[in-house]
Amino acid sequence: MEIHLQFKNIITQGQINEKFEDNISNIINSLKEHQLWLHELSVNDIIEYFDTLSKFWKNEIILHEKFGPGLKHVVDFISKENLMKELSLSLRGNYKVLDTFCTLDNDAKRLYHAQPRGLSVHWIAGNVDVLGIFSIVQALITKNVCLVKVPYEYSILKDIIYSMKDVSTNKIKGKELLQCIALVYIEKNDFENQQKISLEADTRIAWGGKEAVESILSLKKKFFTEDIIYGPKYSYAVIDEKSIINNKEALVQKLALDISIFDQYACNSPHTILVENSKENNEEIRSFAKLLADAMSTVNRLIIPKKSVSEEKAMDILSLRTEYDIKGEVFCSENTDWTIILSDEEGLAEPCFSRVVFVRPVSNLHEIEKYQNRKIQSIGLEIADQNQRIRFADQITKNGGDRCPSMGMMSLYSSPWDGMFAIDRLVRWIPLDVN
Question: 108-133 as b/e, with b when 16 or more CB fall inside 10 Å?
Fold first, then answer.
């Protein structure tokens, strides 16, 4: 068989394989054999396992070195406290519905049970593979087995998933839970195997850009398969005048982290910072941009060093710097590690990624509504008056925007995400009438 019709078996049955095979059905069947075992686990026992795994990953220095700062978000997400909150939010306030039939509305004559959908198939984006961990955890905790189609550069994701074998609790052995996950690599042009896993999926979960997501959605699927799509999104930040005047030193530190953690390749990373400037106080905004530059330098030097970039990306950054040296002002590192571009242009800038952020004035915050569309994901809000913040968030999210986090929280994964509770989409709700 031609190599492009083979797939690479990376992790199956709790073992690293790293070999090419030609029958993906064997892996799918192996996963399905573990569905009953996973279904019989108590959700509290699964929570306890992930909480123990959280503590293990928190202290695993080698994983932190390989995976970078994104691992901290995963560690926080799978803690017991957070998982209980996430499940309760997503499952009508009673996550025990994952185990058995329960009341939800004080009506003892009707019970509800959230059954797993079955086989979840995950297509993981290559630029921010840490995000795939979130969907894998959500699938497992709702008792779905996971077939994960990894990106070309998969070694870090492989290492962190395989490390689950090293963690066990009184009720769950990591080696057993790992058998509910399979990692495979399939070439983009291998339509045959891509189609096979799509047709077997009870839930398809896709992370990626426009081309990748459209390719996945074009695959045939079973009629009742649920799609959870995390497609290409754009994020930005908004700061009002009072916050700039009173709080800019703290704000730039938080923003520098939001910009740097994923090098802006995550959909929740800000690319443009809109600063209210009704009094046309240009010097205040310039002062803010300079402070942000200092904060970016500090983060790069002491907290999250920038990884090397391709020649092509470096040229993109240098080209932008040259352009805005003429029509704006540029604050940047000596190399291409970070770039702040200050200009009087309106609207949201085209993203360059790679720690390039645009600072732009807006005379009236209400003008921002015209920039909204369904491609907008996170809108970082820093508005001093709480009532105004709530009214503004209501106004601008009518036509787009899926979350309004505070500065410093934009890069955190939380539910809902992209406007939906994924955990709710990973289960089937079964009502039962009783006498």
Answer: eeebbbbebbbbbbbbbbbbbbbbbb
